[in-house]
Amino acid sequence: MVRANAVLGHPQFITALESTKKLEKNRVFCGHGIEHMLDVARIAFALNVETAKTADKEIIYTAALLHDIGRGRQYLDGTPHERESARIAAEILPECGFDESETAQILEAILSHRTRSGEKPGLPGLIYRADKLSRLCFYCEAEAQCDWEVKNLALEW
C-alpha cells in the first residue's frame, strides 16, 4: 500500500480534498471527503474478496481515493467531477509509482463510477457498486429531499 499512501500525501490530492471540504461545508446531502473515499475503498475491497478476487488491493484503494477528487471543480464551474478526477489522477498516479496499465485501469474506474456503465466486471464495477453502497440513505435526515436516482435504502441492494 506504499503507492496508495503516496497518493494520500500528494500535494494535488491534499489541495483538491481541501477544496471539496470547503465547498461542501454547508452541504446537507452526502459529502465527498476522505471518509467517503475510504468507505468506498473498504466496501470495494470487501466486494472483491466476496467475488472473483480480480483486483489488487492497492489498485482498489487508489481508485477509491481518487474517484471523487475532482468534486470541487464541479462545484466551481460545472465540469463533471469524474472527468476532473481522472485528469487529476492522471497527473498523480505516475508520480506515485503506478505504471501505464495500472493508471489506465484506475482512470477507467474513475470515469465510469457515476453511470450504469460502471457495472462492468472488474475494478469499474467494484468502484461503482461500492460508491452506491457507501451511502447511508436509509439513515439520512435529508433522504426525502434528495433526488439521487440510486438510493441505498437497505444495507445492501
Topology:
Blueprint: H1 2-9, H2 11-23, H3 34-50, H4 57-66, H5 71-77, H6 81-95, H7 100-111, H8 123-133
Helix pairs in contact: 1-4, 2-5, 3-4, 3-8, 4-7, 4-8, 5-6, 6-7, 7-8
List keywords for this structure.
157 residues, Hypothetical protein af1432, mainly alpha, 8 helices, single chain
Morphology call:
globular
Q: Tell me the number of helical segments per DSSP (H or I, 4 or more residues long).
A: 8
Q: State the share of residues found in helices, binned by percent.
A: 55-70%
CATH T-level topology: Hypothetical protein af1432
This entry's quaternary arrangement is single chain
**Low-confidence segments:** none
DSSP strand (E) fraction? under 5%
The structure class reads mainly alpha
How many separate structural domains? Answer: 1
Specify Rg, calculated over alpha carbons: 15 Å
Q: Could you give a short account of the major beta sheet?
A: none
The CATH class designation is: Mainly Alpha
Give the overall pLDDT as a whole number. 91
Number of strands: 0
Span between N and C termini? 29 Å
CATH architectural group: Orthogonal Bundle
CATH superfamily: Hypothetical protein af1432
Could you please describe the fold and organization of this structure?
With 157 residues, the chain is mainly alpha-helical. The chain has a single domain, classed as Hypothetical protein af1432. It has eight helices and no strands. It has helices spanning 2-9, 11-23, 34-50, 57-66, 71-77, 81-95, 100-111, 123-133. Helix 1 (2-9) packs parallel to helix 4 and helix 3 runs antiparallel to helix 4. The radius of gyration is 15 Å and the shape is globular. The two termini are 29 Å apart.
